[in-house]
Amino acid sequence: MSSAADPPLQLNRREAVRRVSLLLGGAAFVGGRRLLAACEAAGAGLPQALPGEFTAGDIALLDEIAETILPATSTPGARAAKTGAFMALMVTDCYRPREQAVFRDGLRAVDAAMRGAHQVSFIEATAAQRTLLLTALDQEQKRSMDARDETNRTESQGAGAAEGPPAHYFRMMKELALLGFFTSEIGCTQVRRYVEAPGRFDGCVPYAPGDPAWADHA
Description:
It contains eight helices and no strands.
């Protein structure tokens, strides 16, 4: 039984990490236990200062990348949920130095790829241009992660195998965009259905195709 002194959102955030990982095929998140611990402590809100080595421009770019992954429709998208700031904070607090370097270099690579393909920055690009680029990057990260997993399996069979290479940068971005959005107030209350204190247990409730999922209980 929980007490009034228990940390807020602890169970909710832990379950959120597990559920969002299912959206990515059940794979473990980059950052592992450090990411989970930071999510559990995030109930106090994001800091006002810019996290780590990220600039305001970096966070604006992350917002637009996240918005392309989770755009506004009949409900607000990732930009409205300030997902970019969440992503920067998680990278700063939870990723190892070389993972942070891969992520920040990847942010530059996204913008450079857009300039190479369409002669505009990612911020200036159209929604169609952004979607086209991120779709290609998603396919690239899937191939990269499959090869990385195969290498790790092979090396794990030997004694004293070294730590494998970091995940692909777009894998990190996609993970954090999903996690940040679906654990935000907007994600929980406007995209999913949320009840702060549910009453009786209902073993069977009416469901129609397309009904939103229920948000995790806080």
